[in-house]
Design a protein that fits this description.
Elements: H1 3-8, H2 10-13, E1 29-34, H3 49-55, E2 63-65, E3 71-73, E4 93-97, H4 112-123, E5 138-145, E6 148-153, H5 174-177, H6 189-193, E7 201-207, E8 211-216, E9 230-235, H7 239-247, E10 254-255, H8 262-269, E11 274-289, E12 308-309, E13 312-313, H9 323-331, H10 335-342, E14 347-349, H11 372-381, E15 394-395, E16 398-399, E17 401-407, H12 410-425, E18 429-435, H13 437-440, E19 458-463, H14 471-474, H15 500-510, H16 515-531, E20 535-548, E21 551-552, E22 570-571
Parallel strand pairs: 1-9, 1-10, 17-18, 17-19
Antiparallel strand pairs: 2-3, 4-6, 5-6, 7-8, 8-9, 10-20, 11-19, 11-20, 12-13, 14-20, 15-16, 21-22
Helix pairs in contact: 7-8, 9-11, 15-16
């Protein structure tokens, strides 16, 4: 089946027809299933896509990206630019004008004070914010009046659209969260599980890692939307069950992230109840390499904790910082086979952290051919050999034994099994571990099993970024963004990668306006991350979801939250 071409046009086939539109709440219930269940509805306390996207139905940013990657006003009158005076000529500030009359779901006015508070909440030095890179370089946020927000940067900022833009950077209500600052943030269960928002729906009931019940927000700014009165947002299970629930049984209307083999998707579609949809953005399945030592003997305050002195990692991983090791691990992987068994035409081989847009897709590396012998030679030449005859190589007396973890998912477990075998062929022993996705991608600072805590040597997952400019995303490699106990294990630098040259080049990117030069710097940062051992990219994944044949208005968006236009969904009669 020509999945790629057949799926990409699915959204267009269900374009919204104004004549089919019902009034607010007149289409009854819509049922959504995310097999990775949301564990919190505050995206500042979780980097998990499931949490960001479920929350996006409730709390919103000032602006977001449409399905073509274009910036679109959301809670503001227009996108500020230099041309319209919204961005200062010296690129040091951006002024947002909030649309008059927007209300929170509790009926109180949405004002600039809420926007400023959101900045203060995320940047509180005693707290931990999963989206802190969105505010990198911000000097202040001021509120000249109730409908004006002025963000001032520390210097010229050619891309001022990090703060308050996209599903990862929404606005939270000051009145609800003002007693939840800093270290108290994770303790505010009622607010974190039931945020008051400006979005089309409001929370009625939330059972973490299970189900969210929402109702139409009676104070939503469009009096005719949303068409659905109620949302049942079910979490858990697996991708196979989610796909069947939409395309075969019709039990649900929308299923997210169907990480399934292409022949399985094609068979499900024969059920006649639903349609798969797909599109390529910057989503990459990768192996993150722990740059620190995850040894349990170090204790919770040092295990997988980045300790930097003069730009040097003081508790480095005993062997994963050696280029010979991680490059050999990469050479041993048969990426075309992974694409074939895992994604078919919904996947592509990639050597890059940022494979899209094209401007940022580096051509420095090639990785489309497995080279077991080349990997062995690389290790041999580095003196990393098996000295005791047990089949496992050692570096400085430490055996190359890896704990490799990921979320529970059929495709990911297939990948684990293959990669374990390939690594064994080059003298690396691998222990496999899979963790329930709701836990793995959750933000619970008390759990030992989150991807942020990274109590393993290698972990595999995929993530992406909002919009078409990866500046904030590339900021995930900055030294000071590593999760630690002091930040409640929040932070975007999952590998604990730290390279002063990377930090300096990133700083240059933040000050560069020329688009071609931004692309060059972005590609160079990508290359440093791969070449210097932050990660091993595997597959450039298309987003693949499915919707009921009776659900209209769905427009797949690979540049923002997949549920970005849920207010426009309706029931086809």
């Amino acid at each position: 089946m020509k999945l790629k071409h057949a799926l990409l046009g699915a959204a267009a086939a269900l374009a919204l027809s104004p004549a089919a539109w019902a009034g607010r709440g007149e289409d009854g219930e819509v049922r959504i299933i995310y097999w990775q269940a949301p564990s919190i509805l505050n995206p500042f306390l979780s980097g998990g896509t499931k949490d960001v996207e479920s929350a996006s139905m409730i709390i919103e940013p000032l602006a977001r990206y449409d399905e073509k990657g274009n910036l679109t006003p959301w809670l503001v009158e227009e996108i500020p630019t230099v041309a319209n005076g919204g961005v200062s000529a010296d690129l040091t500030s951006i002024t947002w004008k909030i649309r008059p009359g927007i209300l929170w779901s509790d009926g109180t006015p949405f004002t600039s004070a809420d926007v400023k508070f959101t900045y203060e909440y995320c940047t509180d030095p005693e707290g931990g914010c999963a989206q802190l890179t969105k505010f990198e370089g911000v000097k202040s946020v001021e509120t000249p009046d109730d409908l004006t927000v002025v963000v001032t940067f520390e210097g010229p900022t050619p891309n001022p659209y990090g703060p308050f833009v996209g599903g990862e950077s929404p606005i939270i209500q000051k009145a609800q969260f003002e007693n939840c600052m800093g270290a108290k943030a994770p303790e505010c269960t009622e607010a974190n599980f039931g945020p008051i928002g400006t979005g089309p729906f409001k929370v009625v009931e939330f059972k973490p890692n299970d189900v969210i019940i929402m109702e139409a927000n009676e104070n939503y700014r469009d009096p005719d939307k949303p068409a659905f009165a109620r949302v049942v947002f079910k979490g858990g299970g697996d991708a196979t069950a989610a796909g069947r629930a939409v395309m075969e049984t019709g039990e649900f209307d929308y299923a997210w992230n169907l990480q399934l083999a292409p022949d399985v998707i094609a068979e499900m579609q024969k059920g006649g109840k639903g349609t798969p949809i797909a599109g390529f953005g910057p989503l990459v399945e990768r192996l993150m390499l722990n740059n620190t030592n995850p040894d349990p003997a170090l204790g919770p305050d040092m295990r997988s904790v980045s300790v930097i002195e003069n730009g040097v990692q003081k508790n480095p991983h005993p062997f994963l910082r050696d280029p010979a090791v991680y490059k050999a691990m990469s050479l041993a992987i048969d990426r075309p086979l992974l694409v074939e068994i895992g994604y078919g035409q919904a996947g592509k081989v990639t050597c890059n952290w940022v494979p899209a847009p094209d401007l940022y897709n580096s051509d420095t590396f090639t990785c489309d051919k497995q080279d077991i012998e080349g990997a062995k030679k690389l290790l041999d030449e580095a003196g990393i050999v098996d000295t005791d005859g047990d089949g496992i190589r050692e570096k400085d007396g430490v055996p190359l034994k890896i704990l490799y973890q990921t979320s529970t998912n059929a495709v990911r477990q297939d990948f684990q099994a293959l990669i374990k075998q390939w690594w064994s062929e080059i003298g690396i022993e691998t222990e496999l571990r899979n963790i329930n996705a709701s836990v793995f991608f959750g933000g619970d600072p008390g759990s030992p099993d989150t991807f942020q805590k990274f109590y393993a040597d290698v972990e595999m997952y995929a993530n992406t970024f909002n919009g078409t400019d990866p500046q904030a995303y590339l900021g995930n490699g900055l030294c000071d963004k590593a999760p630690t106990p002091a930040t409640q294990w929040q932070g975007e630098n999952i590998s604990r990668f730290c390279d002063p040259e990377y930090d300096a080049l990133y700083e240059k990117l933040t000050k560069t306006a020329d688009i071609e030069e931004r692309g060059r710097i972005g590609r160079a940062l990508n290359d440093m991350a791969v070449e210097r051992g932050m990660m091993i990219p595997l597959v450039h994944r298309g987003r693949l979801s499915a919707h009921s044949n009776t659900l209209g208005g769905v427009v797949l968006n690979v540049w923002d939250s997949e549920l970005w236009n849920v207010a426009d969904w309706y029931r086809i009669k």
